[in-house]
Design goal:
249 residues; alpha/beta; 13 strands; 30% helix; five-stranded parallel β-sheet; globular; homodimer
Chain lengths: 249, 249
């Protein structure tokens, strides 16, 4: 069985190993819109098992069940399956107390991909060029106090922050709290990048600052990069260029 | 001009956009051993400008000079150029006080790749499945006190750590100090992954623990992943499987 990262969605950012895994599979399992991102030239004969967004564990069990029965299953993830995506869900399901003994014998190969923060970074320069931290703001599965503690620690240690899952219908207010924390611990001039759907139709990347940033333009498909005190912006030939230099004063 | 990530080295982990950029280039600029990693079917007609490891800024200036003169230049990076690699160096050189005005007009496109931590993670399961921090232990360009503060902050906030550049001839002792900090702030049973040359000949991945880890097996080509208090190891069909679950108690 393979857990396959599609990257952001653009086929030019799909690893050859991922393309090979899609072609190998008899069954594709994933969130419907991600299955739709699989290039049609790949996996043309495979059965597609689409499912809803919030059912990762059921999806993982279904995939393990089919793999244990001898099917060649590819579980589809956007970005890198190892970063806030399907790799954890599949492996948790494989080894949890409700797992069937046959499931633990399934060989699961993780095929990496380009996660959203790195796709976003590449569009604006090198904001992640130095030490950074990657934090999901979703409190579906962890207490908000843990998130706040981590954001605060990263800010106090002057790390660049990459924030995933900033906002959703079920939690409209948490992003505001996190950004208030950013405002209280970073100078207003600190560069901020808000990137939505990078590598997909409708890509929108905004370079702004801690003083000017607007939570209103973010949704669950946005990734937010907050600079450190050394991150700076230059005016390049094709727009703003964000750099976190390699050296630290 | 393009700054191109080769990923770890295996062609199955080279993005199509990177392959296209290599074919487009008239000139390849990079650290010698990375130029050697460019698949021979690509960039066959390009001039290769190899240089030594510690001369990133000179290399970047040379690349900008050629690009400003109309050459199609690809600067080669291993991994993701945006993560402790050539993107920062090129963009710093482009906008620093010694840059020629023509250089700032060069359009620099960053082509992402798979950075070492994510390649390593994919080999052992999903150790980076939840909030994590990426820190370089190199004190060539930043004070050791900053590194120590960041490692401590990440440990105290219970983030998974990915440590790059753990050791070199010039700084044999810093890794020991960092690992002592890990030992003092994480339980001995916490999983640790030490991965060298993932995706290259001689790949070696060791799954160990804070109590058992041995700095002696690390060199500058090793990346170290230190689990959080929720990271755990299961015995899978093909060896140990490391998981940082999506939920936090």
């Amino acid at each position: 069985m393979r857990v396959v990262g599609l990257g952001p969605g653009d086929p030019s950012w799909l690893l050859p190993e991922a393309a090979e895994a899609l072609d190998w599979a008899t069954d594709l399992v994933g969130y419907g819109p991600y299955l739709d991102m699989v290039p049609s030239r790949l996996a043309s004969g495979a059965v597609r098992h689409g499912s809803d967004n919030r059912v990762e564990i059921q999806r993982a069990r279904h995939a393990l069940e089919m793999a244990a029965a001898g099917r060649r299953v590819a579980v589809i993830s956007s970005g890198d399956p190892g970063v806030f995506a399907m790799a954890s869900a599949v492996l948790e399901a494989q080894f949890d107390t409700e797992a069937l003994p046959a499931w633990t014998q399934v060989r699961v190969r993780i095929v990496p991909g380009v996660s959203a923060a790195f796709a976003a970074a590449s569009r604006v320069g090198a904001p992640l060029g130095h030490d950074f931290c990657v934090i999901s703001l979703s409190d579906n599965l962890k207490p908000w106090s843990v998130i706040e503690r981590r954001v605060r620690a990263a800010l106090e240690a002057d790390l660049v922050l990459a924030l995933y899952n900033p906002v959703s219908r079920h939690r409209p207010h948490q992003l505001g709290v996190a950004l208030d924390l950013v405002r209280s611990l970073r100078p207003p001039s600190t560069p901020v990048v808000m990137a939505r759907d990078v590598g997909r139709p409708g890509e929108a990347v905004t370079v702004t600052s801690v003083g000017e940033m607007d939570a209103g333009i973010c949704d669950m498909r946005t990734v937010i990069l907050v600079g450190s005190t050394t991150t700076r912006v230059h005016e390049g030939a094709a727009g703003p260029v964000v750099i976190t230099p390699r050296s630290y004063p």
